[in-house]
Design brief:
By secondary structure, the protein is mostly helical. It contains 7 helices and no strands. α2 crosses α3. The longest helix has 22 residues. The N terminus is likely disordered.
Length: 131
């Protein structure tokens, strides 16, 4: 198995515990954003609840297999769990697409109408209608 390893650089680098805590916080934030319990995520990722708890609390590292299983279960990129990635327009658009993928055609049409109404309201408020 391939393990995720964090190296301490001679020129100051970073601490393993600190990085594990950051990764754990990102896992927990992603889980909560999906309204999942630890048990639900552990089952979906085929890991134990205690292992997940240790990851979220920065007490344990994970191997690549666990990272991929967790990110897949959460519907997020492994990258976003390992490092802090600012959300840009492209990433937000991708996330919207992922969320909409689970909608029926009728639900997608309703969401499109909502977005169009939001755009129209913004344009009216900003006085930029038709630009």
């Amino acid at each position: 198995m391939i393990a995720i390893e964090i190296y301490i650089h001679a020129s100051g680098g970073f601490q393993m515990d600190e990085e594990l805590q950051k990764i754990g916080s990102r896992v927990k934030a992603a889980r909560l954003a999906k309204h999942m319990t630890q048990m639900q995520l552990a089952e979906a990722a085929d890991i134990s609840v205690s292992f997940l708890s240790n990851i979220e609390n920065g007490r344990q590292s994970m191997n690549l297999r666990a990272l991929i299983a967790i990110s897949d279960a959460l519907g997020v990129s492994s990258d976003s769990l390992i490092r802090d990635i600012p959300r840009d327009a492209t990433r937000i658009t991708e996330e919207i697409g992922v969320e909409l993928a689970s909608f029926t055609l009728k639900e997608r049409e309703a969401m499109l109408q909502i977005v169009q109404l939001m755009k129209q309201t913004k344009e009216e408020r900003d006085g930029t209608q038709g630009e």
